[in-house]
Automatic annotation (TrEMBL):
It comes from the Bacteria. The keyword Isomerase applies. Belongs to the GMC oxidoreductase family. This is Cholesterol oxidase. Residues 486-535 form the Glucose-methanol-choline oxidoreductase C-terminal domain. Residues 148-342 form the Glucose-methanol-choline oxidoreductase N-terminal domain. Its EC number is 1.1.3.6, 5.3.3.1. Keywords: Cholesterol metabolism, FAD, Flavoprotein, Isomerase, Lipid metabolism, Oxidoreductase, Steroid metabolism, Sterol metabolism. Its cofactor is FAD.
Amino acid sequence: MNDTTLHSDASKGVSRRRFITGTGSLLGVAALAGPTAPVWATPRTAAAPIGSGAHVPVLVVGTGYGGSVAALRLAQAGTDVHMVEMGMAWDTPGADGKIFANTTRPDDRSFWLRTRTKQPLSNFLGFPLDRHVNRYTGILDAEEFAGITVYQGRGVGGGSLVNGGMAVTPKRENFAAVLPTVNAEEMYRTYYPRANADLGVSTIDPAWFDTVDCYQYARVGRKHAQRAGFPFLFVPAVYDWDYMEQEAAGSVPKSALDAEILYGNNYGKKSLQKTYIERIRATGRVTITPLHKVTRVSPASGGGYTVLIDQLDTTGRTTATKTVTADKVFFAAGSVGTSKLLVGLRATGALPLLNDEIGKGWGDNGNVMCGRANHLWDPTGKVQSSIPTAGIDNWDAGGAFAEVAPLPTGIETWASFYLSITKNPHRARFTWNAAAGRAELDWQTAWKQPSIDAAKTIFDRINKKEGTIYRTDLFGVHKIWGDHLTYHPLGGAVLDKATGNYGRLHGYPGLYVIDGALIPGNTTVNPFVTITALAERNIERIIAADL
Ligand code: FAE
């Protein structure tokens, strides 16, 4: 089915407005309603939030993948660690009984300090989907820079709270191009297996995949890929598949099968809260302070570092500023968070010896999205699991790896939807704007063209083979490509350039980068397994040599 037939369907009784409202919408068609009353509880704070004047052996900035690996291994090695996280704890159900909001019904919990949602899929059938929300320290940050919106998770668990859980190890032959100074043999023998095991990565049972309604969309994606001659693969994930089978059987509360993804997942996904952070808590050596944002790190007169931390309330207002000292500081604020902090600290004189590589080498992992309009005889299913399991690999021939993504609207859309990771050569740089007092990124929207070209090597061929066309209603009016965003920010403090070969920042013993900022802009696949594996490699060396 193409757009024309969709519209003519609408004219045959299902009005366009009713059709859209019926979608419920991933797509936030709740947009048609006004703001909802708050449905969440006051977030808990840490049992013992960090206090002004405290001295800690190790302070970790951020609680995503890099930060969680560092904290766990340091604690296991006998070091006390304090983790500081600007987002909320996400451990308290709201009045609706759920910790996290549903993707189809965004509320104040959904976005970081916005008064209007900014959903990645901004439109459906030409209707804009965004809606008013109250400003709140919600879970998904849509951070806007000049040429790109960068989506990031906010809260204890970082991006693991909001991501699709696709846990992909890059092909070994591609790894050398990503991180040429890292010993690939060691990574594939030790650190990738460790990361996969400790993240709880596994692959769907292919027999179940072949029969269950909620993966019809992925089976259609497989059929189209294979008929066009592309290699299809199952993509591993961090979801509890037994739980999903029970969801499908109707015996447990639904999560993946209730369209939960972008704003958190209430049950089956193994976010860091259920893996690394659970083990971190079990060590008894780590304190986690949410709703606290690190703003400055500078050498302390008696050795170590002075760290300034703003305590935030849930409107994002600073309610106190704390000063602590730490012997060692790990920057794990994510590619954007770490890069912004470091360029600011260098420019404002807090850490003037940081080198000229700080802020450079930032990329979007070549992310670009698109939808295809299928024929009427190729439905993709009303109920779609929010956890993708299928990929189309055309990296070697066309520079694109596409995931067959869900469009869990609750009604049949006849749409196939894809997020492609592509070989995009462009790299941007963070710089400090002294007048505005903030870091800026010089990415240009036009730099997505190589990504579009790469994605077209897959989807032009599939469309030709199937006699189908691209959807033009998902990212605006008559706009095919979702080329304004990324889910996968990488780089800004690149390994062996801004840091040594294990993440030590030049000029400042005891300061480390241990997150996605180390990776130079692209991983050839979804990034969190590589971020975790690299952090495992680096922290092992740092513990052995520096502690
Ligand atoms: P990250 O997980 O972003 O953690 C950084 C933490 O630091 C965050 O919790 C911040 O709130 C916190 N922070 C930042 N600044 C400060 C500060 N100044 N003070 C205190 N705290 C601070 O970093 N990747 C995949 O591999 N597979 C997927 O399926 C996938 N899907 C995605 C879907 C979405 C919608 C999004 C947004 C991302 C997705 N990703 C996916 C990307 C993945 O989540 C991301 O690469 C990692 O989370 C990055 O890990 P880091 O440890 O670098």
